[in-house]
Design brief:
Layout lengths: L3 H25 L2 H22 L2 H9 L10 H26 L3
Length: 102
């Protein structure tokens, strides 16, 4: 059984990283670079979830992806994507919290 306190700390760190990517992208308005950073972040996050929580959570996260967006505004689409992944990771955090301390 993984250490749930450590798992929660890792999840919080990944949420902070995602927020940092979002802030930088919204400051620079370079949505293309931001999306590339989010994709790299997603791979790292899936890996740490696999190691710190369990394989099921890691694989599940790696398979998630937002649906199509039709705004024709790259920054809006980027922010929708960030919100999607934040929601997914928050759901993982809630599931881990239900498991209790490890």
């Amino acid at each position: 059984m993984p250490d749930m306190t450590q798992a929660l700390a890792v999840i919080e760190q990944q949420l902070k990283e995602l927020d940092g990517i979002a802030k930088e992208t919204n400051d620079t308005l370079n949505a293309v670079a931001g999306r590339e950073r989010v994709m790299k972040w997603k791979l790292r996050t899936a890996d740490v979830l696999t190691k710190q929580v369990n394989q099921q959570e890691g694989q599940g996260f790696s398979k998630t992806s937002p649906g199509p967006s039709f705004t024709n505004d790259l920054v809006d689409e980027f922010n929708d994507e960030v919100d999607f992944y934040r929601t997914q990771l928050t759901a993982v955090r809630a599931r881990v919290q239900k498991l209790g301390p490890g």
